[in-house]
Automatic annotation (TrEMBL):
Its cofactor is Mn(2+); Mg(2+). Binds 1 Mg(2+) or Mn(2+) ion per subunit. Catalyzes the oxidation of 3-carboxy-2-hydroxy-4-methylpentanoate (3-isopropylmalate) to 3-carboxy-4-methyl-2-oxopentanoate. The product decarboxylates to 4-methyl-2 oxopentanoate. The keyword Transmembrane helix does not apply. NAD(+) binds at residues 281-293. The lineage of its organism: Bacteria, Pseudomonadati, Pseudomonadota, Alphaproteobacteria, Sphingomonadales. It comes from the Bacteria. Signal peptide: none annotated. This is 3-isopropylmalate dehydrogenase.
Length: 353
């Protein structure tokens, strides 16, 4: 069971260290951890955010634990050299097209949500975000118009097959939950979204046990703070999913709490090949201070055990330890507490027993 450990930039190495401690504490037989460089760290060492040796490691391993990439010092670089290209390149090269982003309020943390506790307490949703298409990967560029103005463009597009494969993941995910799927789009304005909606309906015919509803993204953003408990499974495109999942994190209490799994079609001897990362970034404002909440990273490792290694009991064990540590007050500054990264890691390890 080979795992690529890619800490990346900013708080990435700090939170990864805690996730690795938790993994080692489980003492799973046959697990090998292989370190690699991504993001600004890789660009500094090798001149590229996703060097060939890292990509080879990603291909070789059964799963990837990914910290975060991004460094303000790289904002002026040509786009293909920026740290963010590491995460985008990984998703595209490995065809990790399905991003699962669960958001659930931890018992005892209801009052830490940006929402009223009784509204927050009902949150238990799963965002299924498409990860290989949309405006992220369409033709993009910068040109000068006839009038001499600079003009930037990014083409938003989806093919039917790209929507179909994420639709199947979403319907199957909804089947495993409460059978309610909400597809979020902007079909009142965008052709991409009209196709998205048509395909969702078409695929839905194969899942009569799932109730499909459609919602425009602006309304979804509003409903997510009005009554988040009404959502179960949400399926949406790359850009809308990026935005709605950050929003969902504050409904739960902190962006430092939400994990994710990025999956494709590839099966290994142990499960589905995937990359696992927090939904947040490299948090340059708190990097190096020992203040980052490692929970999203630790929960990402739990998702890895579940999806890539079929170790459900071990995944649940980590999740229970995190829930119990949080409930006992292992809170960092992001949740109004005063515990640092390592202290929160210690609390999770203690709860693991
Ligand atoms: P961010 O998620 O890094 O940070 C947003 C805010 O949340 C900051 O105030 C930060 O301190 C806080 N925060 C984030 N994670 C936290 C944690 N674990 N504990 C406590 N507080 C936390 O988003 P940003 O500031 O917009 O982006 C910073 C950099 O990260 C950029 O270069 C961006 O492109 C990159 N980024 C990378 C990823 C990724 O690697 N998957 C994801 C998002 C952003
Ligand atoms: C995320 C991040 C990435 C995205 C960036 C860093 C490319 O925001 O994983 O949510 O937009 O997908
Ligand atoms: Mn994001």
């Amino acid at each position: 069971m080979k795992i690529a450990i890619l800490p990346g930039d900013g708080i990435g190495p700090e939170i990864m260290a805690e996730a690795v401690r938790v993994l080692r504490a489980l003492d799973l037989p046959g697990v090998e951890l292989h370190d690699g460089l991504v993001g600004a760290a890789a660009w500094r060492a090798h001149g590229h955010p996703l060097p060939p040796e890292t990509l080879a490691l990603m291909r070789e391993c059964d799963a990837i634990l990914f910290g975060a990439v991004g460094d303000p010092a790289c904002d002026g670089l040509e786009r293909h050299l920026r740290p963010e290209q590491a995460v985008l390149g990984m998703r595209k090269e490995l065809e990790l097209f399905a991003n699962l982003r669960p958001a659930k309020v931890f018992p005892g943390l209801e009052a830490h949500s940006s929402l009223r506790p009784e509204v927050a307490g009902a949150i238990d949703l799963m965002i299924v975000r498409e990860l290989n298409g949309d405006v992220y990967f369409g033709k993009k560029g910068m040109r000068t118009t006839a009038e001499g103005q600079r003009e930037g463009y990014d083409i938003m597009s989806y093919s039917g097959s790209e929507v179909r494969r994420i639709a199947h993941v979403a319907f199957r995910t909804a089947q495993g939950r409460s059978g309610k799927l909400c597809s979020v789009d902007k079909a009142n304005v965008l052709e991409t979204s009209q196709l998205w909606r048509d395909v969702m309906i078409e695929v839905g015919a194969e899942y009569p046990d799932v109730t499909l509803e459609h919602m425009y993204v602006d309304n979804a953003a509003m409903q997510l703070v009005r009554a988040p408990g009404k959502f179960d499974t949400i399926v949406t495109g790359n850009l809308f999913g990026d935005i709605l999942s950050d929003q969902a994190s504050m409904c739960v209490g902190s962006i430092g709490l939400l994990a994710s799994a990025s999956l494709g079609a590839e099966q290994t001897a142990f499960g589905t090949k995937g990359a696992y990362e927090p939904i947040h970034g490299s948090a340059p404002d708190i990097a190096g201070k020992g203040l980052a909440n490692p929970v999203a990273m630790i929960l990402s490792a739990a998702m890895m055990l579940r999806h890539s290694f079929s170790l459900e009991a071990e995944a649940a064990r980590i999740e229970a330890a995190v829930a119990s540590a949080l409930n006992a007050g292992a809170l960092g500054a992001d949740l109004g507490g005063d515990m640092g990264t390592v202290a929160i890691g210690d609390a999770v390890l203690a709860a693991l027993g």
